[in-house]
């Protein structure tokens, strides 16, 4: 259901909104007071009662966070593991796949996150396997038909970064899922930029694994991430390591858990998970459809205003676009632009090749400026950003 957001109130409940004009929600968004309180109050309980004792009393809240994470993406709580980062979550799932062998193939989207690519490259090099890039459609999105034509019995994995880190493209994750499902090939989705920004339904997408960090559009604290593993799929995975939680020792030896917590450890940052839980509750109560609609409107406006500034080029691919807006300004490097805007307390990011190496290289880009929009942003903030970019663009011309 689309509801109206009380932006003033949401901003008033977010201390960072009063400090800067934040356009780096895809790097890390601004946590709300509720998230901050969930984290700090638990840390206080740890100091007063002892961390183990405080954790025992927080079990119900961690379970709630797990249920909310599952609810956010249409999964079951038993299919959710918490991890420390999106990359750690992705790596845990990848390392648990059956070993790849010489001649095996891994097919990836052109926008694959650099860290995932490094992990796959290292494994492929060890095994003598190949990583191949799936061709793209005219709008830059991964081409599902081209993927279907590449499938053979040597393909071990299809990996897609749903929303890339370097711009507004939204891949058609469900179209890719149709192909992988028909072929019975594991399908991993990096949803770092989707969680809390786009409605997600893992069953409709048809993925086996999906992960995302809590600190981005969900506005959780740093250091907590969500890993989804489809139930029947996770039972086939062998974690690279186990501990006393993921595999309790019984009289007859170790018992590996059958739920996604086979990827968790007994030691975990309870305070951060409670913060993530508060962020999940907020996103769900606002409604991700509502969030999506506001981000679509604001980012569309930002793109139009930036494109109208002499010397500015907007680089976003895709037909339907996300809240990540990528651009360059003639005569000034993105990193220098970021620095100049930071002096005015306007926060954007500047990304080079390492985050999205295949896509940046294919498009001949070396660096882009990235302004990413949250529902918290306002049209006044967009005017402030664009006015400042226009001044810098004039000076750089
Ligand atoms: C698409 C994508 N994948 C992965 C990551 C890395 O996530 P983390 O820093 O939580 O490992 C990012 C971070 O920006 C991202 O945009």
UniProtKB/TrEMBL annotation:
InterPro entries in alphabetical order: Aminotrans_V_dom (IPR000192), Aminotrans_V_PyrdxlP_BS (IPR020578), PyrdxlP-dep_Trfase (IPR015424), PyrdxlP-dep_Trfase_major (IPR015421), PyrdxlP-dep_Trfase_small (IPR015422)
Keyword Coiled coil: no
Keywords, comma-separated and alphabetical: Aminotransferase, Pyridoxal phosphate, Transferase
Native species: Phyllobacterium myrsinacearum
Pfam families from the UniProt entry: Aminotran_5
Organism superkingdom: Bacteria
Cofactor: pyridoxal 5'-phosphate
Family: Belongs to the class-V pyridoxal-phosphate-dependent aminotransferase family.
An example molecular function term from Gene Ontology annotations: transaminase activity
Domain Aminotransferase class V, chain residue ranges per copy: 26-385
Name by which UniProt lists this protein: Aminotransferase
Coiled-coil ranges from the UniProt annotation: none
